[in-house]
Fold each of these.
Amino acid sequence: MDETVKFFFQRRETNNEIQIELKTAPFYLLLAMIAGWLAVSFILKSNEAGSVFLPILIGFIMLRFFALIKAQKEVLGAMKDKRLTTKGSKFSFSNPFVYIIQKKAEHAETEK
């Protein structure tokens, strides 16, 4: 499962922050799969090919969902604590979308 997760995002951690970079290629692969399914099903009107392609598409969507769920929980927690910033674009290979989570201060942890 770890290799699957690396296909969708990369997590880097320093002393001060956590960076979660969403990979651009899987996003474009998902868009291409959706476009391919629509083309096969509606333009070519091939129900047989469409019915084979649809489970593959659904499987990829589910794989992406479960691979990103841990990162999304971390991002949502940081968002609630107002420790989240973002940079980049999910459409760019040269400037990918990155969540930047500032770590909580050490003394703040001991006070709670």
Amino acid sequence: MKKISVPVSILSEKFFTKKANNSYKNAMIAIQHNNLVEAKYSMTLQQKRIMIWLVSQIKPDDIDFKEHTLSIKELIEICQLSGESSYKEIRNITFSLIEKGIRIIDITDPSNKREIQVSWLSSADYYQGKVKLSFSPKLKPYLLQLKEKFTAINVIDLMQFKSVHAIRIYELLKQYQDIGERTLTIDEIKECCGVTGKLTKYPDFEQKILLISQREINKKSDIHFEFERIKPSRKIEGIKFIISKNKAYELQNNPVKEIQEIKIKPPIIDTLKEFGLSLRVINQILKDNTEQTIQNAINAVDLQLSRGQVRNTKAMLMTAIKEQWHPEKYKQR
């Protein structure tokens, strides 16, 4: 069946919000437990789009799964299918989500050694032009009442992706965005992308998984990443991802805020780097403190440096920020 690209307007925010009475048009954020993010499964792009939408329908106060009903036409639109055979194909897609298994670490097992094998959907009920979708009950701990260890993704962004592998890489990196980096073995990446036993030559793996994902994510999402090959011997065994906020994305979505941040943060960041702080630590400092608090701490440490009273400038600066030192206090000494 021939597939065509969906116009940008359909994938815009209006696609999800223009009809308040249609739940599928209200989807914005999908939240899932980190164990589900790291689960091992194989999935097509259309299957993944359905699951992203379905997860986004869950409300924070839901205590049980609900059946989600929408027209078959709407489901076809979510999958971005077209052509005469799309009605038949959509049935095959939902049926495969009932058949298709997922391997996930049991959230209730402290040892993280117990594996659960479960399907995504328990049923798909087609009747009079509508379809009613139901989650597999075993997924409740990974999607309901999440208070910690979860990852939130922007549905509108991911619906624009043309590669299911890019979506999976995005989920894995989004989980570690605040940390700023993530290292995974080649086998771990393949398991999460459902290509174990395939792409055995590294150049093929890099081209079809990493580079395609990088182009999609860096162009269409809120995060940006670079990667480094881990090669302890002659063989490349893993990938180190360096993750940051996508400045181009932020500028496009909130240009005023971005201009303000550009004026404020670079001088502080440069100064903190001069003290030997890593970008990950700097990001956390900026997140936890005001600009004035950081600047006061820097000025206080500079006073101590001018008096030759500092043995470890990096450690002193961290203490100064934590304790909110003020330079006026040290001018009097």
